[in-house]
Amino acid sequence: MAIDKDKLAGMANKLKSDKPKTPIQEVSPVKLKEVSKEDTAQLNVWIPKGLIKRMKVHALEQELSLKDITIKALESYLK
Description:
It is a single chain. The protein is mostly helical. The chain has a domain at 45-79. It has 3 helices and no strands. The protein has helices at residues 5-17, 49-62, 66-77.
């Protein structure tokens, strides 16, 4: 099977002369909900092991974080 050199040369020239067609994509920014959060600070405390175990079990059962439980407990205590 013979390859026509003129045909190949014509295809090569066409590829060289045609500008690549770049797809145009529209970019839109993601809208985030603004959540007002109070500034936070770190608190490190030592508590009995039994209490932390109870706290972790409660957190799992209620699907809460230890941070959430601590905040709720401190707010309740300081009322």
